[in-house]
Amino acid sequence: MVSSYDLNVGAKRLEKVEPSLIRTVLDRTAVLRGEGKPVIAFSAGEPDFNTPSDIKEATIRAITNNQTKYGSNQGYPPLRKLLQGYIKEETGIDYDPNTEILITSSAAEALNNSIMAFVDEGDEVIVLTPAFVSYKSLINMCGAKFVDIPLSAENGFQVDIEAVKAAITDKTKMLVMNSPSNPTGAVFSYDNLKQLCELAVEHNFLILSDEIYSRLVYDGAEFHSIASFPGMKERSIIVSGFSKTFAMTGWRLGYIATSAKLRGHILRVHQYSTTCSPTFIQVGLAESMNTPNTKKQVEEMLAAFANRRKLIMKLLDEIPGLTYVKPYGAFYIMVDVSALNISSMDFSMKLLEEKYVATVPAVGLDDHTGKYVRFSYATSEENIVEGFRRIKEMVEEMRKA
Ligand SMILES: Cc1ncc(COP(=O)(O)O)c(C=O)c1O
Question: Could you name the CATH architecture of 54-290?
């Protein structure tokens, strides 16, 4: 027997998973850099800081001590125990480290496992957009319906509860949200979250809450975990990780906190994808994530982000034609370029080609207005000042033309 398969065609589940538009900007940035052009990047969602020194040293020690074997599928027990305390201190919620916490190889893996574990073909998943790219692709991979609820700048990118209500059907299995948000920088208010949770309880759906930026909040804004609302621990999956707060993007370590019943399903996906996350990283982190030195270095990074946020808003205020929604969390700001009569995609590409400044047009993150360009301020103050000097120059040239 000879099959008729075209072996070069990917699985059906990939048909709706398109390469990200953002890649156009990132690929072109790499080419320009390769040519030696002095590119300043506001495009990466990645802290420019080094990982705290205690974490690096403890991990090197763990390797030297041969902590290089397979570990528990659920994650290294002392790290789970530490995370119990860490989460409790931040959110007030007590997760049992033996049954309700799962260590994953990144928040990206945690999102993948959570969606794979609960979303079936034909299910509907509500996503508040613009949003981090993974959500849509993972939902599409499951053959589920991506139900998109656009957030609007007019109300500070807070959730339009009536729009969510109108989108709920008897097929709604899950709502995916991210606060503090990439890309809007919004931190959903207590009342907003409470109303969302009431809908989840009333209509019986899960909330997958990506809380990876929970420590990055400014100007008195308050972070509230979705699991802290009544009836939510049993119907929420909290995803977080070490990439942003601890400047550990390349280490690939994250975690999930949820009820024991939900965790059981997610664990099965984790088990058959990565088996367990790297042992020596978990051992290193368990020894070092709470040392005074690590805490101090994390606080310094958080303070630097707060200063950069202020600086970037000040510099934007000096450029007529560009407006923004004040961000209260994460390290992103959405800039409206529409007053310059240009689309966000064209603005981003022009800025990159003419001034060597890289940004992300939010259309690549499911912004439907075509007006917003996302700037990440995970870069030095020096880069911010020089980058905005170039942006101002380009905008002035555009306004004169
Ligand atoms: C909202 C959001 N969730 C998850 C991630 C992925 O984090 P990790 O590096 O842990 O995979 C990112 C990274 O940019 C993000 O912005």
Answer: 3-Layer(aba) Sandwich (3.40)
